[in-house]
Design goal:
11 strands; alpha/beta; Rossmann fold; 252 residues; two-stranded antiparallel ribbon
C-alpha cells in the first residue's frame, strides 16, 4: 500500500539528517540543503555522459549515501544495482528511499577499501563524493581499479585550489623546488582537523591532482562533463606497484 505523504515525512524526519535531497512521493528529504537541490543539480550536468539505457548492465555505487544515484541507475533499467556504504544511517536512508521509489536495489555495509571482497566486476562503478573522506585515497582508487571496475567508472571529488592543468614533465631534478610553489602543480591538500564542519574531510585535491591520481591508478579519462566529475575507463595496469607490493617486495 502506498505510504501517505504525512507518513513519508515522519519517517524522513526519523531518519534525518539527510545529505541527499530526494523527492519521495512529493516530500523532499533535505529541502534546506546548503547546496540547493543536491545532488540533482550536479546530476543533471553529467547525466548524459552515462548511457540512458542500462538494460542488462550491473552497477556498483560506492559510498551510496541515501541512494540518489543508485535509484537513478535503476530507473535507467540496470539489471542489478548494488549500493555500498560504511555508514548505517545512510544505508537506512537508502533502504527507505528505494522502498518509496519502488527501486529494487541491493545495499551492503562495506568500505571503499573492502570492495575486493565482492569478488566480481561491475559494468559501471560510481565513486561519487568519497575520495576526500578517505585517509588513504590512492589506495582506494587502486583497489577499485584492480577489483571491481568492468567498463566504466564515474568519479567525483570536491576540489579546491587551482583548476589549471600545467604541462608536467616526466621527471624533475632533485634540486628543482620552484614547481611546488606553483598553485597548478598537482596538490592534495591535507585537512588535519575539520573542513566544512566535517571531520571526515581529510584530503582535497586540486584539478591537476585529481586527474593525475586517476591516471596513476590506471584509469583513462574519457570525459569531464562537470567541474568535479570524470568519466573513466580502466586502462593498462599502472606502472607502479599498485595497491600492494607483489610477493617478495617491489623488486620482485
Amino acid at each position: 500500500m502506498r505510504m501517505s505523504s504525512a507518513a513519508v515525512k515522519r519517517r524522513i524526519e526519523e531518519l534525518g539528517p539527510w545529505f541527499h535531497n530526494i523527492d519521495l512521493n512529493g516530500v523532499s528529504t533535505a529541502p534546506d540543503h546548503f547546496l540547493g537541490n543536491y545532488p540533482y543539480t550536479k546530476w543533471r550536468k553529467f547525466a548524459d555522459s552515462i548511457p540512458a539505457d542500462l538494460t542488462g548492465k550491473t552497477v556498483l555505487d560506492i559510498g551510496c549515501n541515501a541512494g540518489f544515484y543508485s535509484i537513478e541507475m535503476k530507473r535507467r533499467g540496470a539489471a542489478r544495482v548494488l549500493g555500498v556504504d560504511y555508514d548505517e544511517t545512510y544505508l537506512a536512508q537508502a533502504r527507505f528511499a528505494a522502498e518509496i521509489a519502488d527501486a529494487d536495489i541491493e545495499l551492503r555495509k562495506l568500505s571503499a577499501y573492502d570492495v575486493g571482497a565482492l569478488g566480481e566486476r561491475f559494468d559501471i562503478v560510481l565513486f561519487m563524493g568519497v575520495l576526500y573522506h578517505l585517509r588513504h585515497p590512492l589506495l582506494a582508487l587502486d583497489l577499485i581499479r584492480e577489483h571491481v571496475v568492468g567498463q566504466l567508472m564515474v568519479f567525483q571529488s570536491m576540489q579546491r585550489g587551482s583548476a589549471d592543468l600545467p604541462e608536467l614533465e616526466r621527471n624533475y631534478h632533485f634540486w628543482r623546488k620552484d614547481l611546488f610553489d606553483d598553485a597548478a602543480f598537482p596538490k592534495l591538500h591535507f585537512i588535519e582537523h575539520c573542513y566544512a564542519n566535517d571531520p571526515t574531510n581529510w584530503w582535497i585535491p586540486n584539478r591537476a591532482c585529481t586527474e593525475a591520481m586517476l591516471r596513476s591508478a590506471g584509469f583513462e579519462i574519457q570525459a569531464h562533463p562537470e567541474a568535479e566529475v570524470y568519466v573513466c575507463r580502466p586502462a593498462e595496469a599502472p606502472s607502479g606497484e599498485g595497491a600492494v607490493y607483489p610477493a617478495g617486495g617491489a623488486s620482485a
